[in-house]
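Data deposition worksheet. Section B asks for the primary sequence of the deposited chain exactly as it was used as input, without tags or linkers unless they were present during the calculation. Section C holds the resulting structure in token form. Section D is free text for depositor observations; keep each observation to a single sentence. Incomplete worksheets are returned to the depositor.
Section A, Depositor: J.P.
Section B:
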Amino acid sequence: MDMCKKSSTFAPINSIIMRRLLIIVLVLAGFMLPAAAEDVVYITTDQFRERIFDYKNNKEWKYNGDKPCVIDFYTTWCGPCKRLAPIMEELSQTYCDQVVFYKADTEREKELAYIFQISSIPQVLYIPVEGKPMLLKGLYPKAEIIRIIDEFLLGKKNAD
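Section C:
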């Protein structure tokens, strides 16, 4: 009977050690996983001026990025914006090596909304590496957004 008591006395300690070991293994395994594809990045006005275009110091449009980008102008309460969000998330995964996807909250980034004259939402700004950007108002179907990205941003010709 003494042996039964000893093993039950050590059981909680063994359980704690096993849990800690499991946590360490899971954490280490997380470091070994491949990096996830790019997600949509929330951008501030200052980040826009640094990464996209510094409109305060430049008159002529000159994109600062090395990959085309898409900026979704939205607000948290907008129904069409909420329908567009999962499409943009999915496309950010699909095009992760080719296009950068941003979101700009027009209520938080009022200066940025003013600069682009965002009066209704959603509006999406498509910015190629070379050339002028294109701003489209409203909620477009996913297939149309894909066509715009492929043709306007990536220069792919439609086979249809």
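Section D:
The chain has two domains: 1-33, 41-153.
The beta strands are 41-42, 69-74, 100-105, 123-127, 134-137.
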